Amino acid sequence: MTFSHTECQRCLYPASHPLGLVIDDEGICSGCRIHEEKDTLDWEARWSRLRDIVQPYRVTDGRTHDCIVPVTGGNDSYFIVHAVKNLLGLNPLLVTYNKYYNTPLGIWNLANLRRQFDCDILVQNVNPVSVRNITRTTLRELGSIYWHCIAGQTVFPVQTAITHGIPLIIWGAHQGLEQVGMFSHEHEAEMTRRYRKDHDLMGHEADDLLSTFDTLSEDDIWQYRYPDDASLSSVGVRGIYLGNFMRWDPKAQHELMMERYSYRTARFARTFDCYDHVDCYNFMDLHDHIKYLKHGYAKVTDHASREIRHGRMTREQARQLVAHHERQPVRYQQQWLSWLGMDANALRFVLDQHRHPDLFEQTEPGQWRRRAQPADTGTPRELPEAGFRATSTLANGEADRYVVIGKGYP
Ligand SMILES: [Zn+2]
């Protein structure tokens, strides 16, 4: 993919956004255009539409769960469970994939979630040898340390739908809609194998890893295999997104959850958003640095673009925050290297192979320079206040170590 410096005149997304972005004649991107629907749609009518959709799934035959809700100890998990259980009146079975990069704070949040909402939960712990094998391969071949996390988070709920005979899965927002306006809210896009493969998994499903790379075996990948169409249709599995039916606003939603259910938050070096991925040491750290090398922008641009669209940040403030945060050094790399059994030089060598060639040039062996960037306003003496509150810290009283298996409190 060729990098384009053309960017949206409203948010900060480049035209070369990996999910695909269309910039119109006025210079406004498809993500910003679809965002405008948040202020024009009749959300009460959308919500009653959702109530109609879930109605047939309410269990009346004595089984206990009406639907499946995938959760983590971060992101929008509290709000999704709140909406499903308290607002829709459904009884969800929660499912979570253990990504092993857990922060103590994420473990605490997950334990508190179970307690506050009084829900059953299934935890998938894939054997750590296979997880490491897969991660070595996806790092080398795809430049990703996160393939197994995303594959696990997106497949385990679907597998559970089949094994437990619970057809309805309820997700939060659709990333393709929220970021780049891939669909209108009114399209009511649902979960598909195709989107998962193309966008979540960078074109590589579990079996593709097996056939393309000779370093993995059936034993490593079978737990990440998406169920076949016959199984999906025999149960009638369907995954819907709440964001199509309610005015999705992660900042406001998290703040409500902090106030009502003690969701805990933490500050990161590489973004101003303290709410999003507090359950993981890598998502906003090493994984985010890799995103920057591959695509030329980091998660802070996603956060800033979202805040501009919601009218809480000017473009200028957003630019200053992005310029500051995307250059912050990776802090938790050593934990990841120890977990995988790799050394820092080997990691640097692999990551250099995955740098976007239009964005970075090697000036001498091992020394890289970013080519021309969009106008750099420099970091001001004082950063704009983004208005996100940290109520805790990532390590939350413990050492900066992965909690590979953790039950939280009490
Ligand atoms: Zn835009």
Overall residue-averaged pLDDT value: 93
Fraction in beta strands: 5-15%
- What gross morphology would you assign? globular
What is the name of the CATH class of the domain at 40-244?
A: Alpha Beta
Q: Give a list of the ligands.
A: zinc ion
Largest sheet, spatial ordering of strands: 1-2-3
- Find the structural class using helix and strand composition: mainly alpha
Q: From N to C, what is the helix and strand string?
A: HHEHEHEHHEHHHHHEHHHHHHEE
Quantity of strands, as a count: 7
Q: Profile the largest sheet.
A: 3 strands, parallel
Rg calculated over all Cα atoms: 21 Å
In whole angstroms, how far apart are the ends? 49 Å
| Low-confidence segments | none
3D structure, described in words:
By secondary structure, the protein is mainly α. It has a domain at 40-244: Rossmann fold. It is 42% helix and 8% strand. The chain is built from 17 helices and seven strands. It has helices spanning 30-36, 43-54, 77-87, 104-117, 128-142, 147-164, 175-180, 193-200, 206-212, 218-221, 229-235, 250-261, 286-295, 299-309, 315-325, 333-340, 344-353, and strands at residues 67-70, 92-97, 120-124, 168-171, 238-241, 360-364, 367-370. The strands form three sheets. It has a three-stranded parallel β-sheet. Strands 4-5 form a two-stranded parallel ribbon. A hairpin with a 2-residue loop joins strand 6 (360-364) and strand 7 (367-370). Helix 14 runs antiparallel to helix 15. The mean pLDDT is 93. The structure holds zinc ion. Zinc ion binds at residues 8, 10-11, 13, 28-29, 31-32.
